[in-house]
């Protein structure tokens, strides 16, 4: 069994503002500096970057704050779970609003000069026909990816067990259908664990299309997005697998949700102590 990622490096791991949503954005940036983190994944949600509250001018101001702090944004992840967003749903009003939301996200990502933007497919209602949901999702991805191609941004497809694209096999199928150099994959260790996918087989299946990993812990039946090293997901083994296949992309401890909002910096520090211990430089 492979344990740890002897060739993973600290710079591959990104800080994220997921659990900082009770703090202003400047606090998050100062927190990253205190922790020695200069590369971030930007979570697009209130109060930091809720897309319907932000004009492009305000995004430029956010970009200035990030640059002044000496940070770079490596991935933009607009909130898509707490908000009513789905490209797969049969309600055309909701679906079109969802697509426009992603178009606003792309415009923000372009201003921020971000190479990657994460997306999920969303899903249909209980009892809806899955193949029809799939077609709507595929049509939506095609629309957004074609715009991303023009902007030089790569869309990262993340499977989610609550969505139409629910596992690695679905993600590979969707990537093949859209067939664009601006469309790649993102693995989430929670999705792997709770969907029953095999992590190594998922890494192999995505191959060079694997560009990003949400590297978080969890525990069945319902403990999601926990600090790495605090759950039952075999993250040391997963790191060894990424190392085995020469993974060079980014990883984020995606502490999504409310459980760490009152201890945001402590949770980020604990996450990085664990993930950095997996790297060849060791922990700090």
Structure overview:
The chain is of the alpha/beta class. It has a single domain (10-277), classed as Alpha-Beta Barrel (TIM Barrel). 41% of the residues lie in helices and 16% in strands. The chain has 9 helices and 10 strands. The chain has helices at residues 25-34, 56-68, 92-112, 130-151, 168-178, 189-195, 199-206, 235-244, 264-277; strands spanning 15-16, 39-44, 72-78, 116-119, 154-158, 183-188, 210-214, 217-219, 223-226, 250-252. An 8-stranded parallel sheet has the order 1-2-3-4-5-6-7-10. A two-stranded antiparallel ribbon has the order 8-9. Helix 2 (56-68) links the parallel strand 2 (39-44) and strand 3 (72-78). Helix 3 packs parallel to helix 4 (130-151). The model has no long low-confidence stretch (mean pLDDT 94).
List the defining traits of the structure above.
single chain, 284 residues, alpha/beta, TIM Barrel, eight-stranded parallel beta sheet, 9 helices, 10 strands
How would you briefly describe this protein structure?
The chain is α/β, with parallel strands linked by helices. The protein has helices at residues 25-34, 56-68, 92-112, 130-151, 168-178, 189-195, 199-206, 235-244, 264-277, and strands spanning 15-16, 39-44, 72-78, 116-119, 154-158, 183-188, 210-214, 217-219, 223-226, 250-252.
